[in-house]
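hey so i finally got around to running both of the ones u sent me last week. sorry it took forever, my laptop kept dying halfway thru and i had to restart like 3 times lol. anyway pasting them below in the order u listed, first the sequence line then the structure token line for each. didnt double check formatting much so if smth looks off just lmk and ill redo it

first one:
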Amino acid sequence: MKKLVSALCLLCVFLSGCAHRIADLTVASNRNINLNSGALITGEQVEGDDYIPVVLLPLGVATIENAIDNAVEGDRCIVGLSNIVVEYVRQSFFVGRVGFHVKGNAVYDSNLKGCEHKKI
């Protein structure tokens, strides 16, 4: 009986947290982008995430859209992301969090007002 309980506890520890790579995208944005402007510049890598708490059941809905919003909100000149990796993260066993983690290269639009300094 002790071996069974020990095995179950060990199994619970190993199953309690993981991340799954669910998408590799070339370009993604939830803003309007003029792809023909010729003023798009790729910048540094940025990250964003959207997590919700779990108490027996998830207490909301995490979305990839919110994760991308959180990644690009740091600079108003960023209009999207390129070379994106989207991961689903689950760190819960009865209590914890679940959500999405997004990382990619920032895409700047130097034609936006106040973003002229982002020229090549």
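and the second one:
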Amino acid sequence: MSMRSNRPTAKQAAYARRWCDRFMAELARLQLHYCNAFKFWRDCRDKRCRRHRRCCGDVDRCLQARIGAVSRHEQFLARQRILSAAPRNSGAAERTVQEFMPFELRKPDSVKAAELRRRGNGRQAPA
């Protein structure tokens, strides 16, 4: 009777690292997109954001602080625009991030939720 190790192989670990890197890169890109789409730079404390008319600071903190002022319907429409503009051949990590609503795009929470979705235990993606 052979005992299989629960540890992933080197190939599986490398795939998981690449998936996580792509997930975090898409998360940062999407956070910046939502900050700019909702024009949070208009009343930002950071002078660079107002001067360049785009978010130049910490997008994670900015999105968390200001997303409550945006109605859920506007957030839904913004997410639908992202989903319709996304290429059909985008990777699984990118699709996972794009399925999040803007108020869900918080780095620690998003990573945990993505892991649950990947394993099949979490909320399923909309059809």
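quick thing i noticed on the 2nd:
Residues 64 and 98 are 17 Å apart (CA to CA).
anyway thats it, ttyl
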